[in-house]
Write a structure and sequence with these properties.
The chain has 165 residues and is an all-alpha fold. 70% of the residues lie in helices and 0% in strands. It is globular and about 55 Å long. The two termini are 29 Å apart.
Amino acid sequence: MIDRVTTLLGGRRERLGQVIGRYLSPPRGPDAPPHVRKHLMEEATDLYWNELEWENITHDAGDEAVERMFPGLLAFVRGLLLTESATESVEAEPRPEVVEELLRFLAARVLELDEMISSGEDDGEPEKVRWELDMTDRLVDLVLYRWLELSPQEAARAESVRSVH
């Protein structure tokens, strides 16, 4: 049975493929050892929570500036997907499986926030929960663009269609 997270991510990937006009397959590579994978995932989720809280406190980025809200997390994702090293003495070790796990975490958070809104369990702060839902939902797309290796032109095309919906 397919879970809701898988359905959400599969639907987004399919939509992006239709907009881009090509099949989008996730990158694959050798899996990291479990302790490395766990550490990288902890770092990614810590970045999410810390940057979300920082924006909650300061409102530095503005309401729709998700890329400015999560600069550390998005840079971390780029680093996890690097296939070439800047120096010859260090070999690149891409970790697309960690990005996939991060996407599952973010999609689960989107579903959780949506459920909180639907059920009225928003801790008396519906605007804050709605804002977090919107930001996290948008972050899912930005991480997907990187994970699926969309070119800047393809990402722009996806964004133009996204803004219509």
